[in-house]
Amino acid sequence: MRVLVVLFALFLTGCSSITAGVAARSDQPQLRIDSSTVAREVSIEKVQKRRVGDLLQASATLISRVSTDRYLQYKITFFDIDGVVVEPGTSSWRPVNLHGGERLPVTQTARTPQAVEFEIYVRRATDE
């Protein structure tokens, strides 16, 4: 019986995936860390916004803090002047292979002129 319990616990551990990561917002200077493990591997810097016509363009630099490749995903979410997500459900996770020590700039432009701020979230790649 004890063997079955151990095997079941190992099975559950293998099926769970950590989806927490790190985030940065264009209107807040500090990095939000939801996973200290991910924070030791990657950082987000140069979080900037600018207008391209009447649309907000988000940009940030993902920085590898380790010497080996990291398979990550990032998502940029846009917010209106009231802090409400603009077009919820339309942003998707984008895969990225961040090489050891690499500094990778990423950009994305909002689809609507109502966007005034953004958040970029980075996590380890999952099978989603």
UniProtKB/TrEMBL annotation:
PROSITE patterns: PROKAR_LIPOPROTEIN. It holds the Pfam family DUF1425. Keywords: Signal. The keyword Chaperone does not apply. Gene3D superfamilies: 2.60.40.3230. Residues 1-20 form the signal peptide. It comes from the Bacteria. The keyword Signal applies. It comes from Ferrimonas marina. This is Uncharacterized conserved protein YcfL.
